[in-house]
Amino acid sequence: MKHIFERGTNKGAPTLVLFHGTGGTERSLLTLAKRISPESSVLSLRGNILENGMPRFFRRLAEGVFDEADLIFRTKEVYEFLDTAAAEYGFDRDNLVAIGYSNGANIAGSLIFHHQNVLRGAILNHPMVPRRGIKLPDLTDIPIFIGAGTNDPICSAQETEELQSLLREAGASVEVHWEHFGHQLTTSEVDAAAVWFKKNLL
Ligand code: MLT
């Protein structure tokens, strides 16, 4: 997969794995990552799908309607890429924290829904429920931050609450940070994620 790897100054800090939103690239979240954990190594991916020229991590049939077969295929592709990248760059495979926005939060959520021990934690900005009707792996004590908007037209407040319940039922410790905005990623949401990260993952 197309990506950037930047080695951090603190080998013990989690490596941040970045997943951009629709139309983003592997550069989109680099500044945000520095605000969350300036000393961390960063592995930032570009989604393999193009929708009208816009990179994404999996196909969709319409806005908010996922192509489930492609989501499953692409989730496995990312999972395997993390193993390959860990071997190539020598970062600790067991100390990865995802940061995803929108479509990127959805692929990160899908990784968590499908694979045990894939991530040590995650910051999901404006995620949806990636799949319904499957049994989640044991997520005991996995810290997950969800940034949500009370007026988000793509990820409704109910869907955010549904995602929170599914993750909690699987054992994850979930914190939801609400903004009174829509789907955009706000500065105060990033600040809240940075505080949460220091408390839960450093
Ligand atoms: C998605 O397709 O993952 C969601 O609708 C979010 C988006 O990318 O707009």
Automatic annotation (TrEMBL):
GO terms for molecular function: hydrolase activity. Keywords: Hydrolase. Residues 86-178 form the Dienelactone hydrolase domain. It comes from the Bacteria. SUPFAM superfamilies: alpha/beta-Hydrolases. Coiled coil: none annotated. Gene3D superfamilies: alpha/beta hydrolase. Pfam families: DLH. InterPro entries: AB_hydrolase_fold, Dienelactn_hydro. The keyword Oxidoreductase does not apply. This is Alpha/beta hydrolase. It comes from Paenibacillus aestuarii.
